[in-house]
């Protein structure tokens, strides 16, 4: 995540955080069990806007789509957030 953030020029702007053991995913209830399909425990598809440790927006995809967790949605929320 650090190398990806550096490549994108995100340093100091966006904190890139991995969840390799799914600790955060499990704690927030955002896990998706794909064991039956050979993929194990995964995070559901979502985007989240967090400010000062408080979740301001959670855009959770339902049914495997890609309609609310996209970059355009989260960027609009960032711009609108005080």
UniProtKB/TrEMBL annotation:
Q: Residue limits of the Redoxin domain?
A: 2-75
A Pfam family per the record: Redoxin
User: What keywords would UniProt list here?
Assistant: Antioxidant, Oxidoreductase, Peroxidase
Name one process (GO BP) from the record: hydrogen peroxide catabolic process
What is the recorded name of this protein?
Answer: Peroxiredoxin
What's the domain of life for this entry? Eukaryota
Please give the family membership noted in the entry: Belongs to the peroxiredoxin family. Prx5 subfamily.
Q: Which GO terms describe its molecular function?
A: thioredoxin peroxidase activity
Coiled coil where? none
Which GO CC terms are listed, alphabetically?
A: cytoplasm
């Amino acid at each position: 995540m650090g190398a990806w953030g550096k490549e994108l020029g995100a340093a100091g702007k966006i904190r890139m955080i991995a969840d390799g053991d799914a600790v955060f995913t499990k704690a927030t209830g955002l896990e998706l069990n794909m064991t039956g399909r050979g993929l194990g425990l995964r995070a559901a598809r979502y985007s989240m806007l967090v400010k000062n440790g408080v979740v301001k927006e959670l855009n959770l995809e339902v049914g495997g789509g890609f309609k609310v967790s996209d970059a355009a949605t989260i960027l609009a929320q960032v711009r609108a957030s005080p």
